[in-house]
Design brief:
Dna Ligase, domain 1, four-stranded parallel β-sheet, 37% helix, ATP-binding, Tubulin-tyrosine ligase family protein, nucleotide-binding
Length: 418
């Protein structure tokens, strides 16, 4: 039982409303005593300034360090020399226009195929694929973009696909990361051998423009596809283990940036006041190694059919229960509606241990009956290396990252890497 009030800002996916009802969350418009503030808009806004000192929000400050292609690429690249066995999921990459000279040299000598992605692109817009020897001409070359070596995909029935996986950053301090053991398998609408755009890019919006597209074929559930792969002899547990490493290592690479931003914008008051449900796009190569293509800060929570609806509603419901089971805190807020400020609320939480105890008890119960797998902390084979990586990020100087806006207090201490 969650037993809290929530407000929803922005457009409302049907799945969010349904999930809140299942989580025993009462949706109130502009409710001043609401414990949960859920943002559901594509527009950037001040997610944190208007928050009351007790409120929890479904946004992590500075999350775009992972969700824009250029800063994401940079934070992974800077960890690779130190932990090559952890950070082996990023294709060889170049940030343009900063590394244009290096890329053009690689283009001439490598004999590889490349994919070009605008820094802030979405829905497949602006993506192009070209081979070594092709003339590289991209309009607006002064704008930020990433070019990566193209990865040959594992195929099912001769068709390329990737995975949209749901990842929950439940808290930053302490760090808790969950990976949902379901998601979407997004197929191209044409066989790979045809060589068309519809055979090489898995974006659902793009493939839906193909007149021969069947939405039920290009958007399937991971829970349908992985059993098929297992029947073909694939060790699915090993695949998940490698995926968990890629996801956890990614978040660790950005943790110090995120942690500093949380401290500035949304400080912990005995419980974490921010969480984020992310969409990780993961490609499996022909050896079933995962490659992270990009991270989405607002993955589509809409659905096309009943099975997808149930999967997404359950994921949202369980995310809320894991991160915001604060019924006892909600009762205190309602009882003393206007009596709380930052200091008095922090003191109250500290002096009322039942608030955190009940939250942790509910979270433990949810963890026993959810598809959210606790990836960090865990007994993963790479857990000791993760701890070393996390410690290193605390010692590494924070950098000015291309395409990323950070809090002014943090910016003043940064140096440029390029």
């Amino acid at each position: 039982m969650t037993g809290i009030y929530a407000t929803i800002e922005g457009g409302k996916f049907r799945s969010i409303i349904e999930a809140m009802i299942e989580a025993d969350v009462s949706i109130e418009d502009k409710e001043s005593t609401a414990m949960l503030v859920w943002h559901d808009s594509l527009k950037e806004c001040d997610f944190f300034g208007p928050l009351k000192p007790w409120q929890v929000v479904n946004r992590v400050p500075s999350i775009n360090i992972l969700c824009r292609k250029c800063p994401y690429t940079r934070v992974i690249m800077r960890m690779q020399p130190h932990f090559p066995n952890l950070y082996n999921f990023l294709p060889k990459s170049f940030i343009l226009p900063i590394q244009l000279k290096d890329f053009l040299h690689d283009l001439q000598v490598s004999g590889k195929t490349y994919i070009y992605k605008p820094d802030g692109g979405s829905l497949g817009c602006g993506i192009s694929i070209f081979k070594s020897g092709d003339k590289f001409e991209v309009p607006h070359i002064e704008k930020l973009a990433v070019v990566q070596q193209y990865i040959d995909s594992y195929l099912i029935d001769g068709t390329k696909f990737d995975l949209r996986l749901y990842v929950l950053i439940a808290s930053l301090n302490p760090l808790r990361i969950y990976v949902y053991r379901n998601g979407l398998a997004r197929f191209c609408s044409e066989k790979f051998e045809t060589g068309t755009t519809f055979s090489q890019l898995t974006n659902v919006s793009l493939n839906s423009e193909n007149p021969d597209c069947d939405i039920s074929e290009i958007s399937q559930l991971v829970s349908d596809i992985f059993p098929r792969m297992e029947a073909m002899g694939v060790d699915i547990n090993a695949v998940w283990e490698r995926i968990d490493n890629a996801i956890v290592s990614t978040i660790i690479a950005a943790h110090e940036f995120l942690s500093r931003s949380e401290e500035e914008y949304c400080p912990n008051v005995g419980y974490s006041r921010c969480f984020h449900l992310l969409g990780f796009d993961v490609l499996l190569d022909r050896n079933l190694n995962p490659w992270i293509l990009e991270v989405n800060n607002r993955p589509s929570l809409d659905y096309y059919r009943g099975k997808e609806r149930r999967m997404k509603v359950r994921a949202i419901r369980d995310a809320i229960k894991i991160c915001c089971s604060l019924h006892h805190a909600q009762m205190a807020i309602v009882a003393r509606k206007w009596a709380w400020n930052k200091d008095s609320w922090s003191t109250f939480v500290k002096e009322t241990p039942s608030i955190i105890e009940n939250m942790e008890k509910t979270r433990a119960e949810v963890e026993q009956n959810t598809l959210f797998h606790l990836a960090y902390p865990s007994n993963h084979p790479n857990s000791s290396e993760w701890e070393k990586a996390l410690e290193l990020t605390k010692k590494m100087p924070l950098e000015l990252l291309p395409g990323l806006k950070l809090p002014d207090k943090i910016l003043s201490s940064l140096k440029s890497v390029f």
